[in-house]
Every structure is written in C-alpha cells, then in structure tokens.
Amino acid sequence: MRTLRSLTVGAALLALAACGSTAPAGSGDAGAPKRGGTLKVSYFPDNPTLSCIDPFQVYWIESRSIIRNFADSLTDQNPETGEIVPWLASSWQVSPDGLTYTFKLRDGVTFANGKPLDAQAVADNVAGWIATVKATNGAAFGASYIQGLTGAKVVDASTVALQLSQPNSSFLQATSTTNLAITDPAEFALTPAERCTGKGVVGSGQFVLDHYTAKVETVITKRAGYAWGSGLSKNPGEAYLDKVVFNYIAEDSVRTGNLISGAVDIAWPRNPFTPQDEQLITRSGHKVEQRALPGVSYTLFANTAEGRVLADPAVRLALNKAIDRKTYATTVFGSSYPLVRGAFDSTTPFFRPQADKLAYDPDGAAKALEAAGWVAGKDGYRAKNGQQLLLDYPTTQFSAGSELLQAQLKKVGINLSLRTLTPAQQSTYLNSGEYDLTGTYFTRADPGALQFILNPDVANSKALARRSAPADGIVKIQALFTKAIGTTDAAQTKQAYADLQDYLIDAGVTFPLFERVQKAGVSSKVHGFAFTSESFLRLNDVWKD
C-alpha cells in the first residue's frame, strides 16, 4: 500500500503556488487570547426551500460553515497549499489500485455525548451516507462526495478501511469536507428530514450544536475537554469563546449596520459587500476579510443544442472575447475585486490560469462574427439569414451585473435578452431547454466539482450537461474527467485537469464571469479570524476583547 499524501501534496503545492487566497487572518493580533464571551454572527437568510443542518445532506454554504465547528472530519485541508493533513485520522494509506483507503484514528476522541469515535463509528457513518443517498434518491449533497464508495470494514478498534468500486482521486479531499464530517451514527436511525432539523446530530467538534431554528437562529456552545483539533489551527484544544449565535438577516445594509453599531461581531453576506458598505466598515475601524470560494467560478454555460445560436462555435468564441471581465468585476464589486482567470476560482487545487485567453478583445469578437456571417444591422445588433443574434439569459436574484453584461455584449452586436425567472420557472427552464446562457457554480476545494455541472453521467442537471457542449465535446470532457479521477497518479491528475481547463475555454464550453469571493465584515474586537479551505469560518483561534 502507498501513502496517498505523498502522491497529492506536491501537485497541490504547485497548483496553489500562484493563488490569491488570503492568509488566515488574526496572525498579527496583539496580546494573549482571552477566554469567554459570545460571538454574534449575522448571515444571509437560511435556505428558503430546504433548511438543513445535517452535515451529509446540506449544500447551503452558511450551514456548512456552522457545521465545520461542531463536527470534525477524518482529514483537514490546508487552505494555502491544498494539502490534505491529519485530523480525526492520524494517518492513512491507499491501495495501489486506488480502491481501499485505510485510516488510522486518533485515540481518545469522543462525540459530544461521550460516545467513542472509533472505527465502528466511522464504518457506521459510511453505511449511513450510502443509505441516505438511497433514501433521498441522490438529492443529499453528500452524494457527490462518495462516488464509488461501497462500504467500510473495521480492521481493529482504531483502524477502518473504506472501500470503493472504482478509483476516485477526489475522495481523499472529500474526507476533509463538512459533508463527510463524522457524527454519532445514532442519527442515521432518524429520517433525513428529521436530521435536517438538527435532531440527533452530534459531532465531535470544538463546539456543540445547541439548537437550530430554521431561518431564525442557530446556536453552538463550547465543548468541554476538546483536545483534537487539526494542526492547521493554533489552538487545537477547547474554544476560547463560550457561545456563538448565528442569525439570518435579509438586507445587506441592515447586516452592515448591525456590525457598525456593535449589535453583531461578524456580518457575512452571500454576495460580496457593495463598495459603499465595504468602505463604511473599514472607515469605522473594522476589517473586511476575504477569500475566494474554491471550485467552479461563477460561470456562464451555453445551450449548444441544434438550432440554438450558441451551437455556432464562432459565436461562442466571440462571446468570450466580448466580455470585459475586469470592468465587470470592478464595477459590480469594487476596484479591488480580483479578476476571474479561469473555469475555477484561484483557490482550487490544480487551478490553471487562462487570463490571456479570457482577455477582453471586442475587435477579435467582431471579426469572428463577421467571418461566420453575422452582419451588423442599423439597430446595432447582428443578424444572419434574417435571424438576429439574440441570446436568452434567464436570471435570478443572484445574477449580479446582468445589465452591465448586456451592455458589453451589445458593443459587438450581441443582443442579450434578460428574463427574470419566477421560482416555478427556476426548476423547469433547464429541462425545457428554453435558454441560451445560464449561470451556475459549485463550491468544493477540488476540481472534480466541475463534473457535477458538465458530466451528464453524474451532473446535478443532466439537461444542462448534455447541452453545454456538442456531442463530441461531451465525450472529450468525460474522457478527461475519467483520466483525472480514475488514478492515484498525481501527475496524471494534474495533466488531465490542465488539459480540461484548456479545452473548456478553447472550445467555448465555459464563460467565466467573476471570481466568487467570500467576504466577511469583522469587528475590531474579534481576533483570530480564519477561513477553512472551503472558505468557511474556522472558530478554533477566534476570541473577543
């Protein structure tokens, strides 16, 4: 058997060497940490359709950030390098065929209710994950993390072997995520819906889930005797804080105002602060911490089905050249906002910059359209064979800067028609195929996240995946994913993901729009703030004056 860490660390270091991720904040805070107090965090509203606090099921970023602090995982991931490091597991090995991951567990770890976190508990979690996938027909978000996982075998009290039916180079990283956090297996006796309410959900973390009142408040309290934090924290022991209260505020301005007034300690919006709010926070003596969310950048995907305008590769080429991404980012999010440079955000392991290919080139866009027969008309829009160059772009409340994008495309003769979707339409328009462009993303600190958008075999929306590229393009994308994931050779994985990222831009499969940056307004009284590799909140080192 080979140690998987030796296979992955070098590639991850190379991939993240040029990333613009923010170093964990608080390293320069003066004075010794103080114990006690309550931290108040104000989040964007809870999930409007599926409120949930169960680690395996939930995809809502705010809930996963809370979970990270009351439920530990087998491994942890360094946000600076992408390296997978020990946590609940002190070491691990992977078999040469990539089908068995054997974890050696730390001694003395317990769940918050006092039960031991041993090999049997991990094996029971694996069984619970697999059962939850079946019970939810694959809807549980954790399903995307356990591809090929068939079960687990207890080797001895502190050793457990997880078994896969096929190699999955993303699996080790999956064991560091909140979705594969280890919880008291007793929770799996409850229904998935019951677990979403927090009933029976008990982790081994630095905090304990006190209560979760969906859309209102979540409270976690200090865990006495905690002593097994990962080496990525300065404080692996008991939390400095006594309690953390999370509430949910819809209005960005109210959330910011509460931070300025001292009503809350951290204001955490879903979209980045407006430039005005960010200036207000910093001028008031507080800090704005930021880190790009790993995974797929906020990207537009085309409908290339036969008969649609974007089936024409020349139009797709022109579209990428016609987007002024720098102006877009600085206009919508502020002058210091980073420029998106590829299909992934820069904090994603194996990230390959594509900035040159994504450079703003309106003249090149015009030439590509002219060569393909799209002729400019008196109204400023191009047409071909009597058909206007019209792109239907359905939008939601999260589609930032749509009008600006519309104005940019008009400069090269593309008519971007904006259509605001009703809640009912949001669940149907992809299947019907009534769109030309759609925007989406996927948050995970591993490039395998993109397959859940583009690979029809596993995509969350198979309709979107099938239309995002011509048939031969889908075959190529699937082959590159297979090459990247179906190996334990880090060099092969790295090369396959590099080839994939090149192809996505060259063939006009993806149209990156902006880097997804997670920002948080942090009171000057708060010290030790840090982001995890998933750009979630890590509370281990946080204390208040």
Automatic annotation (TrEMBL):
PROSITE patterns assigned: PROKAR_LIPOPROTEIN
CDD domains: PBP2_NikA_DppA_OppA_like_15
Record-annotated Solute-binding protein family domain positions: 83-450
Record's keyword annotation contains Coiled coil: no
Keywords: Signal
Leader sequence segment: 1-25
Coiled-coil region: none
Superkingdom: Bacteria
UniProt name for this protein: ABC transporter substrate-binding protein
